[in-house]
């Protein structure tokens, strides 16, 4: 399934302050992402809470306190694993974002306000419960085009905005998130071994595309970096899904090379390139 691509801008403010996100207007192209990552003038968008009206929504009130649960009983002291899923596959008209944090999340109105300030519309929202907790699902489009969001930098801005709001309104979540080490009220309870946490697999998925699965320790900017590495070796990303599960990031991308599935040697090149980036030591240049 081919989807439109968006040209990538720069979001330099994300890493220093998650409350300031810089974005670039989106334009269309035959494929989701290609190998051009040009830098054009950018516009700073600050996340300022403001009421957001949206259509076709089914929401429930935000919990009145961190200890409140659906039936009013006392909450288990164990902190659930936060999950943020960004899905470009399931809806042809919108980018689907799902947020889960046990039963602690309410209507996410503050998060939707922040997304509106990124130039996005929440066209539909609903909440459902299962044994894993409360799932808040949002369908998001670009306000200027009315189309689904596919720009990798804007997708990363959405992810970091949601995580930032989660840590702000539920500070205990920072103990379960990789971002909590730098931006949260509590340090993560554990740290992942990067080598052990990194898993990369490429599978055949028909004659025209392959399926790339990546699992790695989460970090700010990971969506943009993964897409950049893939496209730098002239592989096209057709569509995908990016999940943040606590300290882990899990990505699934449908990829192709010249509208064909990746042959085995190219699959190996792709896997080696991603593995080198994800597992390389972070050494400051000034240390040399």
UniProtKB/TrEMBL annotation:
<dbReference type="GO" id="GO:0009535">
    <property type="term" value="C:chloroplast thylakoid membrane"/>
</dbReference>
<dbReference type="GO" id="GO:0009570">
    <property type="term" value="C:chloroplast stroma"/>
</dbReference>
<comment type="function">
    <text>Binds amino acids.</text>
</comment>
<dbReference type="InterPro" id="IPR040217">
    <property type="entry name" value="ACR1-12"/>
</dbReference>
<dbReference type="GO" id="GO:0016597">
    <property type="term" value="F:amino acid binding"/>
</dbReference>
<protein>
    <recommendedName>
        <fullName>ACT domain-containing protein ACR</fullName>
    </recommendedName>
</protein>
<keyword id="KW-0677">Repeat</keyword>
């Amino acid at each position: 399934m081919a989807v439109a691509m968006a040209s990538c801008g720069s979001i330099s403010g994300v890493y220093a302050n998650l409350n300031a996100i810089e974005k670039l207007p989106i334009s269309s192209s035959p494929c989701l992402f290609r190998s051009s990552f040009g830098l054009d003038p950018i516009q700073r968008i600050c996340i300022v809470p403001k009421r957001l009206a949206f259509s076709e929504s089914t929401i429930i009130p935000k919990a009145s306190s961190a200890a409140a649960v659906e039936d009013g009983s006392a909450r288990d002291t164990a902190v659930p694993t936060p999950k943020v899923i960004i899905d470009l596959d399931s809806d042809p008209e919108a980018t689907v974002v799902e947020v889960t944090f046990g039963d602690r999340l309410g209507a996410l109105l503050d998060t939707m306000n922040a997304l509106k300030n990124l130039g996005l519309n929440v066209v539909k929202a609903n909440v459902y419960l299962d044994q894993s907790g409360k799932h808040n699902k949002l369908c998001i489009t670009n306000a200027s085009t009315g189309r689904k969001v596919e720009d990798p930098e804007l997708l990363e801005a959405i992810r970091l905005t949601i995580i930032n709001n989660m840590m702000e309104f539920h500070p205990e979540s920072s103990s379960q998130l990789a971002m909590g080490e730098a931006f949260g009220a509590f340090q993560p309870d554990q740290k992942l071994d990067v080598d052990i946490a990194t898993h990369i697999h490429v599978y055949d998925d028909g004659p025209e595309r392959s399926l790339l699965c990546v699992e790695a320790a989460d970090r700010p900017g990971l969506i943009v970096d993964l897409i950049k590495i893939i496209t730098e070796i002239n592989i096209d990303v057709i569509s995908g899904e990016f999940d943040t599960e606590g300290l882990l990031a899990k990505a699934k991308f449908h990829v192709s090379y010249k509208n064909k599935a990746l042959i085995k040697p190219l699959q190996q090149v792709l896997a080696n390139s991603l593995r080198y980036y994800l597992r390389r030591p972070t050494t400051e240049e000034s240390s040399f």
